[in-house]
Design brief:
This protein is of the alpha/beta class. It contains 14 helices and 14 strands. The structure holds zinc ion.
Length: 399
């Protein structure tokens, strides 16, 4: 992902960072992992997932967005902090096993301060790199049309639990935005985020958006900015996508769930036309798998359909891989630290072993079109193996 894929290379890792990527690195005192015949790629970056739902995996295969909200209304208010701890641990394990090394955890289950405490603790215990996006209680009075401002407890979590912006787990604010609250509430929530120096994420352009066009409303009130990550945008106008690009904002698309829950066509091609490179996300495992392979394929194929039906900008396999790695990293503010294999970046990477009968004519095409979580041999986060079997160790180490 750092220019052309190298056919044969060594990767030297020192502590939690990549020190070098080059053929035949001389590091005779290093522990050697033999990944011969494998593909090494940057770990996937899931730019949008509600990780607390890990225990609800695939419980709702046949619902649209309305059905999903009914499910939230049923489960959300009853989720205890123990449930959140279990959900986040399961969700993080599902993600790591599927090759996701960094996740933006949109945590709209902040029913009490203890819910926040256990969610952060569960992320840390899992070993995943995460942006913990502090949300709001999952109760009806905090959702559609709510006039409540963001929970003040976010101040405590920023001050006491997540003050650092370079740690394995960092913080953001997950706000409801104009489509799930009001423009006044949104202005107050953005002011809180900016006071705490936190990036912000909000859902936009779902079928429930109705007459509210969040980006247009934010721009009209002078609130759009480079610290905002927008998620979905299926019903968002082209002119709003240009506003996001012009104000330096970020866009995340969750194509599998958007197609399955009938949000409409993913905005991938329209985003590229507006000058935005979207990151991808799984969103909810209630109705999708936990891996990014399916997200790349759904994004690619839905964009091809949009190009055919509506003349929208086409998308390549290389684009899809970038959306799930370096573009997703940029979309969560970590493009300078992760998302590609390059000297100086953090050592978050996957080793994939293609099946013996598969000639790797084009490694990018194989990863995007044919690979799946079962091909993952090992998952490294910050230089530590977090999933997979140990790869064969080269003879020097064995001796
Ligand atoms: Zn979401």
């Amino acid at each position: 992902m750092d220019g052309a894929a190298a056919r044969h290379a060594d990767i030297l890792i020192e502590d939690d960072r990549i020190a070098a990527v080059a053929p035949n690195i001389d590091a005779s005192d290093a522990r050697r992992i033999d990944a011969g015949g494998c593909i090494v790629m940057p770990g996937f970056v899931d730019a949008h997932r509600h990780l607390w739902q890990g225990a609800l995996a695939q419980i709702a295969p046949d619902v649209d967005l309305g059905g999903y909200f009914a499910l939230l209304g049923d489960h959300g208010p009853r989720f205890t902090s123990d449930d959140v701890a279990t959900g986040v641990r399961l969700g993080a394990a599902q993600a790591i096993d599927a090759g996701v090394t960094t996740i933006f955890d949109w945590s709209h289950i902040m029913n009490s301060p203890e819910h926040a405490d256990v969610a952060v603790a569960a992320l840390r215990a899992s070993g995943i790199r995460a942006v913990f996006a502090y949300g709001f209680p999952n109760r009806p009075d905090w959702l559609m049309g709510s006039s409540k401002p963001h929970p003040e407890d976010a101040r405590r979590v920023r001050r006491e639990l997540l003050p650092g912006d370079d740690d394995l787990v960092t913080m953001a604010l997950a706000v409801r935005g104009p489509e799930m609250s009001s423009i006044e509430v949104t202005a107050a929530d953005l002011a809180l985020a900016r006071e705490l120096d936190l990036p912000v994420s909000m859902h936009i352009g779902s079928p429930f958006a109705g007459v509210v066009h969040a980006v247009e409303a934010l721009a009209r009130h002078g609130l759009a900015g480079p610290d905002i990550q927008y998620v979905h945008a299926n019903a968002t106008w082209d002119s709003e996508l240009r506003i996001i690009a012009d104000t330096g904002g970020q866009l995340v698309i969750t194509p599998s769930v958007e197609l399955q829950m009938k949000f409409g066509l993913p905005a991938t091609g329209r985003a590229l036309e507006a000058g935005l490179r979207p990151g991808l996300g799984v969103d909810v495992v209630t109705s999708a798998g936990p891996d990014m392979f399916i997200q790349m394929r759904a994004a690619l194929q839905a964009a091809r359909l949009d190009a055919l039906l509506n003349g929208r900008r086409d998308v390549t396999a290389g684009d899809a891989l970038a959306f799930a790695t370096i573009d997703a990293a940029r979309s969560i503010g970590l493009g300078h630290r992760i998302g590609s294999l390059a000297a100086g970046k953090l050592a978050d990477l996957l080793i994939l072993r293609p099946p013996a009968a598969t000639p790797i004519n084009d490694p990018v095409a194989w990863v995007v079109l044919a690979a799946h979580p079962g091909n993952i041999e090992a998952v490294y986060i910050a230089g530590v193996r977090r999933s997979g079997t140990a790869c064969p160790i080269a003879p020097q180490e064995a001796a």
